[in-house]
Amino acid sequence: MKFKPRAPREGINVSSTHPLREAALLIGGVSAIFATLILVIGWSVDLAVRWIPPELEVHTFGDWAYGLGDPEHEPERLAAEVLAQRLAAHWPEAPYAFQVIVTDHPEANAAALPGGTILVTTGLLRGLQSENELAFVLGHELGHFHGRDHLRGLGRGILYQLTASALFGFSVTAPDVTAFLGNMTARGFDRGQERAADRFGLTLVQARYGHVAGAGGFFERLASGASELDELAAYASTHPASSDRLEDLDDYAAQQGWKRDGELDPWQRSN
Amino acid sequence: METLIQFGITLAVLTFAYLVGSIIERRHFESLREREARHREFPTVSFETLPEGWRVAASGLAVGSTVVSLDYFKRFLAGLRGIVGGRIRSYEPLLDRARREALLRMTEQAVADGYDAIFNVRLETSRLASSRGDGKGTSGVEMLAFGTAVKLVRSP
Questions:
Q1: Selection from B27, B36, B25, B57 nearest residue B155 by Cα
Q2: Count: domains in chain A
Q3: Dihedral angle at the C-alpha atoms of A226, A230, A233, A235, nearest 10 degrees?
Q4: Topology, domain B2-152
Q5: What is the reported pTM?
Q6: Which ipTM did the prediction report?
């Protein structure tokens, strides 16, 4: 046999696909898969939530949050809880025994957690100018319980995280369980849900005070942008489009013939 | 805003990695072709035994090795591939370059040492553990080419 010198052939072991084409194909395909996954998860959670009776939710989560939050804020926590329960008195068929937990966080935020627990940050309590403002924020969260949005938000959040962990193999470590759950819950609320919760909250405020003055005070400061409270921005990021919502609240109050002025109750931390 | 900045940085690094990686790859392929053409007449074969008629005057071990690493762009594409499966096309040119470079280095060493041919040529690959410390990930692969270099007895 004779040795015949030959240059190595190219194009056998290397695909001729241009790397940018490959990138576009992969990015497009994977994004499409994720978008579909997110949609499917959203729909299935919405479906599933309808089948979870509130009694079961209360039974499962009723007292899980007991003792969470920061003990040094007990006076404020208690005051807010009493207020929440007084508001809930105007929603007699509520299946929950509402409780409030306060977490030490500079960003103003509130969240509805499973089982009837409302999470409020110290940042939100610090920025309050009247009890009516807090009543509306709590009423809004009660509205999420009414619409069962909290389960939807939480369900989606958890499923998204699970899917991400399954796909990419990273695990979720949340140093602050309450903040984590609050964050999860806040995701996946849509405008319609926010609007419905707003109206529900306003109805409770009207029922309690006989007027809706000061209810939107929180959002007014958000919308005017004149506020020096940077923390408000955090609330806006999970509860979007405040000027729209303010208008909607105003229209709704006018439509219902509710008084939009009246005496504001002062927010007392330790009453 | 923060997310946007992070996204922008990732995109910039990807673009940078792609541009630099492409230039390096193109130059390397040019160099490979040119050197392969130069050593075309030098037999590197995988026979285990000497072909009939070869009379060996001297022999030695010829070794060539390359260590290659992934660039960020290729790793990104491979990561996406890891989700959907299929040929990791972005790695193919990389490994092709590594194989050919290792073979060339082996050949060039043998030529420099005055050998006439290399037989029993083998290729081996080993993975270098990453510097991440958790044992996961790959910082690169080594491509090792080796064979027995021989000097042939010339007829007077």
A1: B57
A2: 1
A3: -110
A4: Translation Initiation Factor IF3 (3.30.110)
A5: 0.59
A6: 0.73
